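Continuing the series of single-chain predictions for the mutant panel. This is the parent chain; the variants come on the following pages.
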Amino acid sequence: MDKFPVPEHIASSDLMLSALVAMGVLQLTWFSVMTLRRGAPPLTIQHAITPLLTIWVLMWPVYVDKNWLWSGLAALILSALLASLSNSPFWRQLRTAWSEPSGNAALKIHPSLQLPPLTHQIAALAIAGLWFTHIPEFGFGLALCLCLAFPAAFWVDHLGTGQTTLLQLRFPAHPEQTLAGHLLLIVCCTALLSWSLHVYHGTAWTSLLIATLIPAITASAVRALIPGQWNAPAAMLAMGFVMWLL
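Parent structure:
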């Protein structure tokens, strides 16, 4: 229980923030469908979504009651459910934009099972959110890593396809991943986790780089070993536990 009562006008900011996030999710669905109609591959759209969610993640420390964070996640889940269940043209196209390509069987438990749209991103955000509600400085940094570091590594891996063969690491689960992508992931995760700890504790973030390098390397290993997009939720779990142990 808080030591001091929260003024009503401050507590109401959570409701206003949740309404803004809901409108942002609606804009995200429109962005996804319009991008698909212009010929963008679904996997590209899905890796473009999480960077846009950075605006929301940066608002996480603003919440007075951390439980309101789940309203934003609920808006994403509701949109994914509508995309999964509705047969209207817009929602069918959103289902295509937010779903794993049918030719990729790495994420299917059974050939007849199709995961709901945006499953992996929502699961990863939920895990980061759980860390945030219990240890805010961990969850905030993890969510930033998910929204910025992982997409950055993906884009680097796919730059100059066919010209970076020597940089490809040829992992069995992810043969397309490159040395440059993993190095960028480690650098970004190290910086973002250090900055998150600095935000909450005031410690010079540069003095935390060595400590946060360990969970960043853990994220790189998980990204290489876990097949498909399940590596993002797994990385949120692994990085959080490594930081907790440290």
